[in-house]
Structures are given as C-alpha cells and as structure tokens.
Write a structure and sequence with these properties.
The chain has 65 residues and is mainly beta. The protein has one helix and five strands; from the N terminus they run ββαβββ. The protein is globular.
Length: 65
C-alpha cells in the first residue's frame, strides 16, 4: 500500500499504524502521530487501520533551545 509519511510517498505492507512505526524503527518516546490530519492517541496506534494514500505526520520532540 502507498502512504505518505512526512511528505514522502512510501510503500508499506503495514495495515496498522503501530506496525508501520515498528517497520520504521520509530521509538514511541517523544513521538506524536497524526493520520489524515487527526492526532492519533498512543493507546490507539496498535489498532489504527491505515488506508491507501493516508498522510501520516510524525513529530518527534527534541531537546535544546
């Protein structure tokens, strides 16, 4: 399936958001995720079903100033 992650088109076999994050080796600490403009609570990542051409935005908290 094709999805868009932070503006880049990506092919994935993941059906759930949690699976996608694991495929991307994305640690959950300090991470916020939105799919199709909707923020997805961490408790729903494992059950959130991805759809063809979904736009996924990954935002990582950073330290510093």
């Amino acid at each position: 399936m094709q999805i868009i992650i932070n503006g880049k088109s990506v092919t994935t076999s993941a059906q759930y958001l949690g699976d996608l994050l694991q495929q991307l080796d994305q640690p959950p600490e300090g991470l916020a995720v939105a799919v199709a403009g909707q923020v997805v609570p961490r408790a729903q990542w494992a059950s959130w079903v991805l759809k063809e051409n979904d736009e996924v935005l990954l935002i990582s908290a950073t330290r510093g100033g």
